[in-house]
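User: Structure please.
Assistant: Input sequence and predicted structure:
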Amino acid sequence: MTHSVFHFAIGMALGTSSLLPWILHRILKGRSANPLIITWLFLAYGLGAWAVVPNMLRQFGVGIFSTAQSWVNIFLLHSFLDSRQLGGALIGAACVIVCFSIQYGIILFAIYRRRVITSPSPTN
């Protein structure tokens, strides 16, 4: 069975990569990306949590998730990844760190670009 951190990392990577081109486009064009960034963060962490739902319910003793059934793939290919015996605690943690770093870097870049664009130029 694949580790829960790996499942969370798959969801977070999918969410992080999904809106990244549009966010960068808005930032580079000088337009506000604040609502899109908020949506992006909710999407990334929401998909990460969605991918871990079967593991959480299995821990609470919900029997419907006790076996690897194909319908559980609606949780971002959960049973498919479990059948591959990937392990993934270390790989998942590394992926989460990379996704978090990308998100943090993009937010800092958006703040920097917004300040550069809106600050008045010095006049002599």
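The helical segments are 4-28, 34-59, 78-83, 89-118.
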